[in-house]
Amino acid sequence: MSSRTAFVTGGAQGIGRGIATALGAQGVRVGVVDRNLDAARVTAESITAAGGAAVAVHADVTDTGSVQAAVRAVATELGPVEIAVNNAGWDDFMNFLDTTEDFWERVLDINFKGMLRVTHTVVPGMIERGWGRVVNIGSDAGRVGSSLEAVYSGAKGGTIAFTKTLAREVARHGITANTVCPGPTDTPMLQAFADKSGDGAKVLAGMTRGIPMRRLAEPADVAAAVAFFASDATGYITGQTLSVSGGLTMA
């Protein structure tokens, strides 16, 4: 991959850390963007220690001003943002009828509107330069549904639909937009969900049995799909949705 600059939200840990690390290993200059600046610094330092280029930047994707400031900071340190990876996300697991409007707002603000804020900020520059990659992290919950994740599933379904429309609107400018949809992935968020059940090991074992490959995804598995869509070689692939689920979902 040629040297470009990426803006990875939620880049400090979990899937985001895997994405930032994979892009850094391929020569991309990486803005590790996260609310947790200390954790973002650890990730950025690991990338630079491996010979890459990265900076840690604080941003809250629920705040437009914060997103805009983060984009400016990354551009100042590393160059204009050419690859935007909208990975920041949050959810809690509960039946839809037990949720509240405050919960709906939080899920949508982080998972859907946060992606809109970043995309709205970086795409004009991509259009000016005639090149760009937008890679949104969806979820198989948005493709096929997921019990206890009704609002999150809706947000991720919206992400998939939005990405397809964006792809149509910006294609003539040399910009692609694609969605990567992870299945169950070994992250702190999944572990927290399992632990809430009272028997985390049993819950995770049950998930694993349902996956044909008989293992949970690792962040690196998702990162490989993101790196593919972010590459120079994928300029004719746009508006696509790729599941990374070990065969759990194939529709």
Query: What structural class do helix, strand and pairing data support?
Result: alpha/beta
Question: What general outline do the C-alpha atoms trace?
Answer: globular
Strand order of the largest sheet: 3-2-1-4-5-6-7
Number of strand segments: 7
Beta content? 15-25%
Radius of gyration: 17 Å
| Name of the CATH homologous superfamily | NAD(P)-binding Rossmann-like Domain
CATH class: Alpha Beta
List unreliable stretches of 5+ residues.
none
| Structural domain count | 1
- CATH-derived architecture: 3-Layer(aba) Sandwich
Helix content, binned percent: 40-55%
CA-CA gap between termini: 31 Å
Number of helices: 9
Remind me, CATH topology? Rossmann fold
List SSEs in N-to-C order.
EHEHEHEHEHHEHHHE
Describe the largest sheet.
Answer: 7 strands, parallel
